[in-house]
Amino acid sequence: MDLKNINPFIDAVTEILPQFGFQSLVQKGFSEKSKKIIASGVVITLGIVGDKKGNVVYCINQEGAKQIASIMMMGMPVDELDDMAQSALSELSNMLTANACINFSKEAVNVDISVPTLLFGENIELNLNKEEISCVEFDVDGIKLEIYVALV
Amino acid sequence: MKNLRVMIVDDSTFSIAVLRKMLEKVGLEVVATALNMNDAIEKAKEIKPDLITMDMTLPDGNGIECSREILKQLKESKIIAISSMMDEEIIEKAKNAGIKAYLQKPVDADGLKAAIEKLFAGEELYQILQDNYEEAFKESVFTFLKNEIGGEVELENYQLKYKGVRKSSGVSVAVGMIGRHRGRLIIDMSGDTALNMVKKILQDESQTLEEAIQFLSEFANVIAGNACSLLNGLNRSFGLRVSPPTVIIGEDITISIGDMDSKSFMIKTDLGESFMNIGVQKGDESWI
Where is each Chemotaxis phosphatase CheX-like domain found (chain A) (predicted)? Predict the structure, then answer.
């Protein structure tokens, strides 16, 4: 599996998340998927253009998304995934992807990102139109965070 | 550049006089001047200038501190540092304080004008984008559907029922737009509508949902691509490009439109309805 496309995102997660006060960050395995992704909970997708082109998708289950939003909002309780919580999660995806872009630029790969699109629900099927999608999973304070990268 | 209101902060009345002359020559209005930090902070709060030229040495503080205080209150104002001293350390400090550009004294009129133009070009460009994106997308959708499926094609403004969210009708596609400013297109329709459209376009009744999804992905890609070309044609500085589409399929999905500047439409055709949302967002300014 080609790690060149996913490493900048792994570095972004390990750099950004502790800044918000997440305590434990464990990188689980890599996997490869083809085309279809099925997820439940919150899905955030961002477009990427430049020397490489494609998409990145962040998936977190509903409960985990609320916890992450709460921590980002300095511990404010989040019972519902309201506007504020959605905005916090979008902003996190923005920061992670922007940081990954900086990491790419260190390897002389220049890319730019679009605004995030956030959606939530059950059994969300995502079609990224790429044969190869790299996936990395993190355990963030017990919350599962999956990142799918489809870049060529 | 027109109608910009400027404040000059400098501890030298001579420098203020020189800068005032340069700024007024390029048609800007100097609305205030200040010789020290306290005066600058007070006047900035009261007058809210669009642009501030900031000296780095002030009798009761420095330009970095002064800029920081002013920007706490005035998020929209832009500050250009103008100082006789300039080295990497102070430039770094200026950037961190939120100052947008750094010029060394003596400043020449052309250099100052160029820096201001560059600083405000993004604002004007964003205004042009805001004024034109709706038409560009409407034209793009209308042309595509008229040519490909024919019949009646109508675009109606649509008000989201719940603030900022849309319950998906079954199949949605998101396409990002990336350039000097950024944006995103969302198209959402039922599987049946997508299927009707692909059957009509290909004149083939045996098309499946899988193929309809491929069609929707390409449909959104063409709409966004053509609209971005129209916008880039208005001003090349937009440099808009589209990212590959992401297709989202499911029975129970809510799409968050987010708090960006966006417009929603219902596209009505003989083959069914589609929801469309286009949003734009101001890009970051880079250091000058």
Answer: 43-136
Q: Which residues of chain A lie closer than 8 angstroms to B252, CB-CB?
A: 121-123
Measured from the Cβ of residue B168, the count of other Cβ atoms closer than 10 Å reads: 22
Residue B276, both tokens? 């469309």
With CB atoms and an 8 Å threshold, state whether B256 touches A118: yes
Chain B positions touching chain A (beta carbons under 8 Å)? 163-164, 168, 172, 174-179, 182-184, 186, 213, 217, 241-256, 258-260, 279, 281
- Whether B112 is covered by a domain: the verdict is no
Distance of alpha carbon B81 from alpha carbon B20, whole angstroms: 15
d(CA A34, CA A133): 6
B264 and B152 in a single domain? The answer is: yes
Q: Are B82 and B103 in contact (CB under 8 A)?
A: yes
Q: Which of A53, A90, A117 sits opposite B186 (nearest CB)?
A: A117
> Looking at residues B17-33, what average pLDDT do you find?
94
Q: Which residues of chain A have pLDDT under 70?
A: 1
Percent of chain B with pLDDT over 70: 98
Q: Which fold has domain A7-151?
A: Chemotaxis protein chec (3.40.1550)
* One domain for residues B93 and B177: no
pLDDT digits (tens, 9 = 90+) for B126-180: 999 999 999 999 999 999 999 999 999 999 999 887 778 899 999 999 999 999 8
Give the residue among B1, B6, B48 at the shortest CA–CA distance from B29.
Answer: B6
* Whether A49 and B259 lie within 8 Å, measured CB to CB: no
